[in-house]
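Lab notebook: predicted structure, single chain.

Context: the supervisor wants predicted structures on file for every construct in the current expression panel, including those that have not yet been purified. This is the next one on the list. No modifications to the sequence; it matches the entry in the shared construct table.
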Amino acid sequence: MLEYIESFLYQVAVALSYPVFISLALMILWSVYSAGDFLMEWIRRRSGSTDPVRSFTGAYSTELNKALAMPGMTDIHLTRVVRLWEKNRISRLDRVRFMVKIAPSVGLIGTLIPMGIALSSLSTGDLVSMSSNMVNAFTATIAGLACSVVAYLISQEREKWLKTDFLEVETRMEELLRKLEHHEAAGKNGRVMNIETLTKELFRP
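Prediction complete. Output recorded below exactly as produced.
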């Protein structure tokens, strides 16, 4: 009975080798793409062509219009829109963090499976198959760790960028609320502000 279970588990492990190595190949492609995307964003930020406030107001113009059209509740709804934007930005970072954790695990699985096959080949004296599987085993380890390192470096830098962007947007929204309060105290109709006037207020020198 035990022999059947061991044979079944061995066949499962061999069958898993295909999706594991396909996953590692996809992770390598993802790492290359992410590194290129990260480099492009780094260049844009270094050149000063990235403005998180403009990006925020452009992406959430409809929600901002709705928030600005609610007298007495503008601050609450603006905060909600900002938090929604932050959540969406963090979800992008979470995908990178997921790769940091999952890549070494997939690499380890891709290492152990060929090693098991290599040991089986050793018992039959098939040294060619054994050496081939050992090469695959160590290749899987290297690929998994390399993808994890790339993802970790990207996640660390993107996290710094996000903190800076969040602070900038939250500060500008707080400035906007102060201006709205000033308009209201002065008896002006500040509550009819829309996304166009919002943009002018936010980017007024």
